[in-house]
Amino acid sequence: MKQLLDTETPSREELERILDTTEAMLEISQRDIKKVPTLRGRTVINMFLEPSTRTRVSFEIAAKRLSADAINVTASGSSLSKAETLSDMARNLSAMQADVLVVRDRNAGVPAMLARHLSIPVINAGDGNHEHPTQALLDAFTIRQAFGNIEGRVVSIIGDVAHSRVARSNIHALTKLGAEVRIAGPPTMIPVGVEQFGVKPCTSIDEALDGAHVVMMLRIQMERLEGALFPSVREYASTWGLSRERLRLARPDAVVLHPGPVNRGVEIQSEVADAEPSRILDQVTNGVATRMAVLYLLTGDSQ
Amino acid sequence: MTVTRIRGARLLDPTKGIDDALELEITGSRISAVGHELSGSADQVVEAEGLWLAPGFVDLHTHLREPGQEYKESIATGTKSAAAGGFTTVCAMANTDPVNDSPAVTEFIRRRARETAAVRVHVIAAATQGLRGEVMSEMALLRDAGAVAFSDDGAVIMNAAVMRRVLEYAFGIGRTVIAHCEDLDLRGPGVVHEGAHATCCGLPGSPAEAESVMVARDLELARLTGAALHIAHVSAARSVDMIRDAKRAGVRVTAEVTPHHLALCDERIRGYDTNAKMAPPLRTARDREALREGLADGTIDCVATDHAPHAAYEKDVEFCGAPFGVVGLETALPIVLELVRERRLSALAAIDALTRRPARVLGLGAGTLEVGAPADLVLIDPDRVWKVEAQGLASRSKNSPFLGNEFVGRATQTWVGGRVVHALDEESS
Ligand SMILES: [Zn+2]
User: Of B169, B247, B379, B414, whose CB neighbour count within 10 A is largest?
Assistant: First the structure.
């Protein structure tokens, strides 16, 4: 693997290799001294042109645990801005002589477009409504952790699928890894043609939850109200939100995932977010290990 | 006067239904004879064995960008691109800077064309002042200044009442209105066709209905007013069906299709090539099939390029931020010839769609090889294999979705008024 731009392109074997490597990285993260010299002398650029503290910090910790030098480039703190062309941006990045570029952008396709101009590995840390592959990998890892495997598990993704890069990456990754993926959400938020990706669209959250192993709640963005995609927060919470009662429709051992940050009381009730089935904090821990695995596999000495 | 004889070619003249091995003679600026083995002396003989000789092509939809955006294209470079593609007549769209909504701008464009253009330039003026879709432009004065049609193109007239008045008024002064049919509200932020490819790429989509809803509206308004309506760059199967029905019902409607909508479908957006971004967007393979069918059965009258040059740096940005549009003059011919090879069109029908039929839409009188007509001609090598490369394009802008493609068929020589405006040198292939 040379890039991680999406989860649509890699094979099942490549995805599984990342999950297996994550296992090893998690072990490192649980040691007293959480640092290995694997990537000493390597430079990772974390270019976050859309603010995102969580993902940036997660990548930064991952790089540091592997002893790489991590440089953060943010939209405001650098000359790299939308005033320049993508090839100019790529030229500037090449001149920095980094070994890997991690890029987050508010526009779909920017990591792929930059990768075309660069010779170093590019990791997509989330691009618009396109994909967020490391999030899907950490979700897949968390599911594997909870159930031992992914094959045959029923995963229900609930919410604004149309505007969710997390949903897209999870749909590609989890269907490839053998899960049965269901989606549900307001009809205005179910993207056209999604059934072609091998998922089962459900008409209600109850139908989606029925017998599910994994309930993945998506974050609802309040600006979707302006786009007239749903009428009110109240209606959203009662129709598509996850409450304790609803969760009873899922299997007794079901787990709840959320990419964060959580809108408490909207897509998920606090009683669920903080309760036993929630793996939201595991996701954060696994996120660092997943990103270590990806950095290692793309830049390390592994062939 | 210089006499040039072209011999050995397969001569295609849709105005007379001729598809035959005939010689053609140019005297000065006009066609002076067509026939078998012409006699008399010629100053110059063009040997055209294996080539096709046809009327020069007519493009109803060209963005020449002058005045105001000469960094993208100028009348000089845009018409050079036209000549290289076999076009001898182009119709310049009104969205220049300043907008062509006044006789002064129309006259300016016509003067610059006289001074710098390689091919004939007709002027399409704005239908409403400033392309704002509110108050109609001074259409009669613009007509008197030389405007051949009216269009706000991509600045769609969203207000149906304004569109009605524009059609009514244009009808009264003997001009056609060209409509870019796209409901801008329904399109919303859409930059590509709404479908599985858009979903996969995470790009906002615009449904085919953004077009067909507007086609329906404008067909109804054309029926109401009796006006001549020309629908630009049809992209959706539903639009083709509605235009077919409207024609049967006697509505005065004509329509065009672009080469890129005939050749490509929405799969082409994978990989975020901003040269695959245009309005209307590339749609499904089913839509493309309907467009090919519509062109073959005459529902769609002609091919028009919607040649829309943009500077490289403008397209070298994120997909959503890139401007809509692609260049098309130099790649139109091989795409239409592909339909001939697939036996979807006869050679004569293909030439018809590029010459007589577009000319007829606006009554331009071009697109014929009749004796006495201006010698606007193109020699075509239908078997010439060539690769589309940025540096090989005569247009100032290189935003083609076909860069790197191998095409078959190319204009080898173009005449406007008896003057050679394009000649492909032997080495270039
Ligand atoms: Zn248009």
Answer: B414
